[in-house]
UniProtKB/TrEMBL annotation:
It comes from Actinoplanes xinjiangensis. Residues 105-196 form the CAAX prenyl protease 2/Lysostaphin resistance protein A-like domain. It holds the Pfam family Rce1-like. GO terms for biological process: CAAX-box protein maturation. GO terms for molecular function: endopeptidase activity. The keyword Ribosomal protein does not apply. Keywords: Membrane, Transmembrane, Transmembrane helix. This is CAAX prenyl protease 2/Lysostaphin resistance protein A-like domain-containing protein. The chain crosses the membrane at residues 32-49, 70-92, 104-123, 135-154, 160-181, 188-206, 236-254.
């Protein structure tokens, strides 16, 4: 029951924020404001519903040191996507033709903040965390990663390969990031940094949603394996490789810190339900 309540609460914020952003599409200032409000509201609602349904403080989204954690995650996301673009550009698959739209970048700042917060609260804060309690880290990582990738099949220029790439480089990686840090601020920052770098800085297609109007005026070309095609650089093998490397690093950290949760056996579940 707590799972359903938490899921519905986060989905409600996501839907309202998405509809509001769609209603003001083209107005960078309102998009920025609505995105920021949605992100803040998502955090407030998540903390409230966890307190109400689990009768505890949501340590995974605690407010002590949140800025530093968010900043570290954002830097990782920015650096990772910049490295992907640098490799694509080195082989001639990314070309900058001039300056783009600073106002468009500001609008994307709010939009990407809302997307990062709501998606991380939904997939890592609710789905991964609760599945992990029952099935363990490995099954939770696999299931939520696949669902996260499949969700992107609904995007206009989505492909099966693109969704598969997202599952590997983002779904698995962000779950591993949460497992390593045991807080949501780092994966939120990583998710935001990655998305904003793609759309707000390098002006490329983000997960098959068409090209963005960011700081740079640029274009991609070449085979899908290099550029990602219409899906965007997230469909590039460079992005997949980068995601795999970070996933391995985060899982290594999770294991070293003792954060890997084993699968609960039927006997353990039965024991847990016995009242002392």
């Amino acid at each position: 029951m707590r799972f359903v309540k938490q899921l519905l609460a986060v989905v409600a914020v996501t839907v309202v924020g998405g509809l509001s952003a769609a209603a003001v599409e083209g107005n960078f200032f309102l998009t920025l404001v609505i995105g920021a409000v949605t992100a803040v509201l998502g955090v407030i609602v998540y903390r409230w519903v966890v307190r109400r349904t689990e009768h505890r403080e949501p340590a995974e989204l605690g407010l002590d040191g949140w800025g530093g954690r968010l900043g570290r995650g954002t830097l990782i996301g920015l650096a990772m996507f910049a490295a992907v673009i640098a490799n694509i550009a080195f082989l001639g698959g990314y070309d900058v033709t001039g300056w783009g739209s600073p106002t468009g970048a500001l609008g994307l700042l709010g939009f990407m903040a809302a997307a990062a917060v709501t998606e991380e609260l939904l997939f890592r804060g609710v789905l991964f965390r609760i599945i992990e309690e029952r099935a363990g880290t490995w099954i939770a990582l696999a299931l939520t990663g696949v669902v996260f990738g499949a969700m992107h099949l609904a995007n206009p220029d989505a492909t099966v390969w693109g969704a598969t790439a997202i599952a590997i480089e983002a779904g698995f990686m962000l779950a591993a990031c949460y497992a390593a840090t045991r807080n949501l601020w780092v994966p939120i920052g990583l998710h935001f940094g990655w998305n904003f770098a793609a759309g707000g800085i390098f002006s490329v297609a983000v997960s098959g949603n068409g090209e963005s109007k960011g700081i740079l005026e640029a274009s991609t070309s070449g085979p899908v394996a290099l550029s990602g095609g219409a899906f965007g650089p997230e469909g590039s093998l460079y992005a997949v490789l980068g995601g795999v490397v970070l996933t391995v690093v985060f899982l290594w950290l999770a294991k070293r810190r003792g954060h890997i949760v084993p699968r609960r056996t039927a006997q353990a579940e039965a024991t847990a339900t016995v009242t002392p």
